[in-house]
Amino acid sequence: MFTGIGVSPGSAVAPVLRLAPPITTSPQDSDRGPASDTAAQLAVLREGFTKAAEALKAEANVRDGEARDVLNVAAQIAGDSALHASAEKHVKAGMPAGHSVTLAAAEFAEMLEKLGGYMAERAADLRGVRDHVVALIKGVAVPGVPQPGHPYVLVAKDLTPADTATLGGSDVVAIVTEEGGPTSHTAILARALGIPAVVAARGASELDDGAEVLVNGASGVVYVNPSAEQRQRALAASAAALVTSGSGCTQDGHPVGLLANIAGPADGVAALEADAEGVGLFRTEFAFLDRSTAPTFDEQKALYTAVLAPFAGKKVVARTLDAGADKPLPFLPLGADENPALGVRGLRTRVRFPELLENQLKALAAAGAESNADLWVMAPMVATFDEVAEFTALARGYGIRTCGAMIEVPSAALRAGDILSEADFVSIGTNDLTQYTLAADRMLGAVAPLLDPWQPALLDLVALTVNASEGKPVGVCGEAAADPLLALVFAGLGVSSLSMAPRAIAGVRTALLGVTFAQCQQTAEAARKARTATEARNAVRDLVPAALLAELGLAQDGLA
User: Fold this and answer.
1) Which residue positions are annotated as catalytic (predicted)?
2) pLDDT (tens digit per residue) in 340-388
3) What is the set of domains in the chain, with CATH numbers?
C-alpha cells in the first residue's frame, strides 16, 4: 500500500504502466553524424526544435481549456530563441545536438527554479520540451503517455505539463505520481478530466509494470493487489449515479450556488453540460496568451462576448488579468523579481501599466452591455483596502455594475470587512491563500503536504471572511471547491457559492443534497477544531453518512 495526497476523487482498478524515463544524452553521442560536423549538428538541432514546436502547437489546437494553454506554453518554449541560442552555443563548442539540448535546458531550468513560484513550474514545461526535442533529434519515439489499447494506471515520478495535457481520450483510468502537489498541473487537469489521481506517493514509481492496483483518488491511498472485496467496492463506487442537474442546495433547501471555472468559450460548453448555475471564475488570461502585443479593445470585446453569450440570465464572474512577474507576458516588461510569488502580479501591474487594466475593463463592460449574462468583475491579488477602493472606483467608472475582489492574501482575509465595505462580493482563491498562509510554494513538491486545503488555518481565514461579509456574497473558486467533503465544510462556514471544474459539479451537488445545512455546520465546526489537515478530513468523514461516502466514491475500500 502506498499513501499520498488524493487530488482527484474516484476509484479505479487496473494494471500499472509506468511512464518511460527521459532519453539520456552524453557528450559521446552521435546524433545522425559526428559531433565534429558542426554544420550538420546545427541543422539537426534546428530541425528538432522546429518539429517539436509544430507538433505541440498542432496538439494544442485539438485540445480545450487548461490542456490547450499548457500545450501552447510548451510550443512557445520549443520556439524560444534564447533556448535555441544556448543549445547552438554548445554545438559550436563540440557537443552533439541532443546533448546540447540537455545542457541548455538544464541551465534554463536551474534559473527558473531559483525564481520560484510560477517560474519554477515553467521548469517542468521546459523538461518536457527537452525530452520531445531530444527524441526527434535521435530519431526515436517521443516520450509521452502510453497507448497500450487497454485501461491502465499511469505511474510516474512526475508528469510534465504537456504529458498531463494529453491524458484526455487516453487509456489512463487513474494517475499516481511520486512528486507534485494539490495545485500542480497534474492535479488540476486530472480533476478537469474526471480521472482519479494521487500525487506525492513516495516509492510508487518502483511499482512493476503489470501489477494490479486500486487507486482511491479521494483518500490518497494506492492498494497493490487489492482483494476481491476492495475491487468490488471500487467498481460499485465508480458506477454510482451522481446528481447531474439542478441548483446547488442541501437536503433541507439551503442554497449554495454551483458555478464553473472556465478559461474560454470551449470551457463554457462543458459548464452548461454540467448544468452549472453560472461561472464563478472566468480566467481572462486566455485573451492575452500567445501574443507578442497586448490585445486591442475590439479583440477583447469579441472574445469576452463569445464567452458571455451562452450564459444568458446567469452570473459570470470575470477575473481581470492575473499576470505579472510570476506569469510573464512578452508585452509586459516588468523585469525579474527574486521572489515572483511576492512580486508584481495581478492588480499590482496597474502601477506600471494602468492602460492594460483600463482597456480590459472597458472591453468587459462593453461585452457585458451587449450580453444578457449577469457580469461580475473582480481583481486578483488584492491585499489592502486602498487597492480594492481604487479598483472598484475605476471599474464602476467604466460601467461595471458588480465589482469584487479575490481573497488570496492573508491580509485581505483578516481585513475582509474593509475589503467588503467597497466591494460588492469577494471570491476566495484557495490555491494562493493556502500558499501564502502556510508559506509554502505551491509549485514545490517538497512542501506539498502543507498545501492541503484542509489546513485548519486556511479554514479559519475562510470563516473570518464570511463572518465579516454582512450578507454580501462570498464564493470559493480555488481547487478546494471541487472536493465534495470540503464543499460541505465551506457550506457550513456560510460560503454562498462554490466554483470548480465542470466535471466536479455533479459530485459536489450530490454531496450537498445528501446532508442538511445543520450537518454542514457540524462538519465546519469539527474541521476547525482539528489541529492538522488529516485530523480535519477524518473528523468530517466520521460525520458524513456512510451511504453518501459510498455514493460519492469516497469509501475507504474496506481498509482504515
Assistant:
1) 185, 477
2) 778 888 899 888 889 999 999 999 999 999 999 999 999 999 999 999 9
3) 2-19+145-239 (3.50.30.10), 38-138 (1.10.274.10), 257-552 (3.20.20.60)
> 415 φ, ψ to 5°?
-115, 40
- Please tell me the chain's helix, strand, coil percentages from 3-state DSSP, rounded to the nearest 5: 50, 15, 35
Length reported for the chain: 560
Q: What is the CA radius of gyration of the chain?
A: 24
* 532, HSE (Cβ side, Cα atoms, 13 Å): 5
Between CA 204 and CA 187 the distance in angstroms is 17
pTM higher than 0.85: no
Residue 261 marked as a ligand binder: no
408 is in an annotated binding site: yes
Helix axes 185-193, 65-78, angle to 10 degrees: 140
CA 85 to chain centre: 32
**What are the helix (H) ranges across 194-244?**
228-239
Does residue 477 have an active-site annotation?
A: yes
**Please, what is the angle between helix 456-467 and helix 517-529, to 10°?**
130
- Is 520 an active-site residue? no
32 is in an annotated binding site: no
